[in-house]
Fold this sequence. Notes:
The chain is of the alpha+beta class. The chain has helices spanning 49-67, 107-116, 120-128, 136-146, 148-153, 160-169, 176-179, 195-199, 222-228, 242-248, 304-315, 317-326, 330-338, 380-406, 423-433, 445-457, 464-471, 482-507, and strands at 3-9, 13-20, 25-32, 74-81, 86-89, 95-99, 156-159, 185-186, 191-192, 216-219, 235-241, 258-262, 266-273, 285-288, 294-301, 349-351, 367-369, 412-416, 436-440, 474-478.
Amino acid sequence: xxxxxxxxxxxxxxxxxxxxxxxxxxxxxxxxxxxxxxxxxxxxxxxxxxxxxxxxxxxxxxxxxxxxxxxxxxxxxxxxxxxxxxxxxxxxxxxxxxxxxxxxxxxxxxxxxxxxxxxxxxxxxxxxxxxxxxxxxxxxxxxxxxxxxxxxxxxxxxxxxxxxxxxxxxxxxxxxxxxxxxxxxxxxxxxxxxxxxxxxxxxxxxxxxxxxxxxxxxxxxxxxxxxxxxxxxxxxxxxxxxxxxxxxxxxxxxxxxxxxxxxxxxxxxxxxxxxxxxxxxxxxxxxxxxxxxxxxxxxxxxxxxxxxxxxxxxxxxxxxxxxxxxxxxxxxxxxxxxxxxxxxxxxxxxxxxxxxxxxxxxxxxxxxxxxxxxxxxxxxxxxxxxxxxxxxxxxxxxxxxxxxxxxxxxxxxxxxxxxxxxxxxxxxxxxxxxxxxxxxxxxxxxxxxxxxxxxxxxxxxxxxxxxxxxxxxxxxxxxxxxxxxxxxxxxxxxxxxxxxxxxxxxxxxxxxxxxxxxxx
Length: 520
């Protein structure tokens, strides 16, 4: 028997997942990690590469122990990671400094870039599909301004998944899907645009080689072999960004295919040709896909899963007790109750995440509008259903905006992540969007995408597309109800108007935004 290893460096944890060569999960080891605010640096989120490397080692060692496989039978490994997080190295390849994905320390630098370089963000966005808010340039400027001795030593930059592969192989490189989220990148050419760094007064010689996903970097080094227990025969293969490799793990690999990833945040992903220019109004994000000829237009809905968790913990003690007594998932009980509520949830309007406005991204204060004091109408079941409907409505707005600029026709949605476990939520998504919704059986799509990259690297498959065709199996399909869609179309228009009014309250400093992008 032979195997493939995927290392998944997410925002909240590192996982090592072992698969066989048919894409079946064999073993998993996971460790949570914490990205702490740097002392005295507001809104920072540092990536502790020393402590976190020990966690990576522990996961690899545990998955080897638990699976009891011969390390020499692991043909290849790859890594995927949270996007935007970066690691900087000196000329010897030693780490100097690192931050996690939503590190927002560079708000001042973002603001100064916008003020001092007229229309520069718009120009860079048209090439890279990224704004300054979470990009690498403001963070590098922050380092230059605030830690000049560290900045002087910087010789290379990579993403966090690349860092794992570099620790295992000794080779620092990146791929388009993850490297592209730095914003120092060309969507159409799929390579660094180092002149962007030079234009704002930064080093332009720190960008490593770009390799397409599935390319072989080398093999596990002797030092890494001693530290991990892996074999020096195991190939180390270029991986990619978590959302993009997760899309491959869902078989979203062709132009026009769509996925909604329903986790703590919801991402709406549409595959588009790589030559497609980003929208002129900077409303959406565009990233290189792990498939060489494609980019991905991306909408993001903030906190959809986290809002559900908050609602559960703040208001649903009775349902939690019932779930404990019946040994069931509390969300299953909440959905059962919500299914008895009429479509539209009595016009309750949840105000949480806005639709994506990437160029000027902020949200209203969290609230529910149009509540009733009639307990038979306004209750936990109705409010819970309204949250499920609202997540689908905001997702549908993002998909509509992607269609407008890309011209890509949509036909069906692959729905994955924790939210896709809910039968009611899946049906609501079909009804709101008007598209057929497919649910895959796979539970570890991102890691599966990493295993696909490893499979390509060791020659089991020629392409990610062929691996996806063999490995991804479908579980359920939901067909939209046209009558329900008509109701939701009306509710969507009401919500748009209500949200606009709620943003004005934030603008007038009457309420406090749920979240604002750095630099606003």
